Amino acid sequence: MSGGIQASDSGMNAEINMTPMVDVMLVLLVIFMLITPALMAGFTAQLPQGVNLIERDDDKERTTLGIDRTGNMYLNKVPIPQCAPTTLPGCKETVINLLLAEMQRHPTDAVLFIKADRVLPWKEMAEAMRWARAAGFAVAAMVSDEAKDESPEEGG
């Protein structure tokens, strides 16, 4: 027997404890499961607020042109790569061609819904409306959210 201390004599376990690593991996998995849908959601914007609006459900068959806060454009929640921001050359032709393809996909519905962030200058929204007219859409409808009633309730 040698004079040194051996691992079996010291009571130490030489195996790797997998429990902390599995815990960390499960936490990361949950975080990615929660964040991935938000990343894939596409277009997000704070819409302007209006009063006396007609409530309508989102119809996936309707054509929607979105413009976010930074000027990036989306067609049916899918980014338009050449339109970031809308002033880039070639954006007009790209958007009009995509809108023409949408008109051919469902020619009886000549309504384009435009969802633009509330901080955008009006000229960008007006330009999008001109492009919709050039693509053959009869109506370009601006989408807004219902204004929140901030007046205190009476009788309470």
Question: What would you say this structure looks like, in words?
Answer:
With 156 residues, this protein is α/β, with parallel strands linked by helices. The chain is 35% helix and 15% strand. It has two domains: 13-40; 49-146, Nucleotidyltransferase, domain 5, CATH 3.30.420. It is built from four helices and seven strands. The strands form two sheets. The protein has a five-stranded mixed sheet, with helices on one face. Strands 1-7 form a two-stranded parallel ribbon. The longest helix is centred in the N-terminal third of the chain and has 22 residues, at 19-40. The chain is elongated.
pLDDT < 50 stretches: 152-156
- Helix and strand sequence: HHEEEEHEHEE
- Oligomeric state of shown chains: single chain
Q: CATH top level of the largest domain?
A: Alpha Beta
Placed side by side, the strands forming the largest sheet appear as: 4-3-2-5-6
Figure out the total of helices: 4
CATH topology of the largest domain: Nucleotidyltransferase, domain 5
Name of the CATH architecture of the largest domain: 2-Layer Sandwich
The overall pLDDT average reads 75
Indicate the overall shape. elongated
Strand content: 15-25%
The beta-strand count equals: 7
Please describe the biggest sheet, giving its number of strands, its sense, and whether it closes into a barrel: 5 strands, mixed
Tally of structural domains: 2
